[in-house]
Amino acid sequence: MGESLATQFLSADLETACPACGYLMWVRYSEIVAQTAVTCPCCYTQIWLVDETGSAQNAGDIVQQQIAQALKGIFR
Ligand SMILES: [Zn+2]
């Protein structure tokens, strides 16, 4: 159950606009956390998904912590 929670979070889509042409596209949280690059399907600009504030990374950490807490409760 905990694992599916993390999986759900990481497979969640996030709407983002291309900085070059403003084309709206969807990226996955897992791609942001991994800081991979995506290519805009409109202008073919390569966009690096840099999580400047670390919010996606932090949210991922929080999910991991909550899962760890939940598992502690189960296996007491
Ligand atoms: Zn573009």
Query: Are any ligands bound, and if so which?
Result: zinc ion
Inertia-based shape: elongated
Overall helicity: 40-55%
Q: SSE order, as H and E?
A: HEEHEEH
Major sheet: arrangement of strands: 1-2
Portion of residues in beta strands equals 15-25%
Keywords: Plasmid
Describe this structure in words.
With 76 residues, the chain is of the alpha+beta class. The chain has one domain (5-71). Helices cover 46% and strands 21% of the residues. The strands form 2 sheets. The chain has a two-stranded antiparallel ribbon with strand order 1-2. It has a two-stranded antiparallel ribbon with strand order 3-4. The longest helix has 20 residues, at 55-74. The mean pLDDT is 80. The structure holds zinc ion. Zinc ion binds at residues 18, 20-21, 23, 40, 42-43, 45.
List the helices and strands and how they pair.
Elements (H helix, E strand, L loop, with lengths): L1 H9 L2 E5 L6 E5 H6 L2 E3 L6 E3 L6 H20 L2
Antiparallel strand pairs: 1-2, 3-4
Helix pairs in contact: 1-3
What are the salient characteristics of this protein?
76 residues, alpha+beta, two-stranded antiparallel ribbon, 46% helix, binds zinc ion
In short:
Keywords: Plasmid. The protein has helices spanning 2-10, 29-34, 55-74, and strands at residues 13-17, 24-28, 37-39, 46-48.
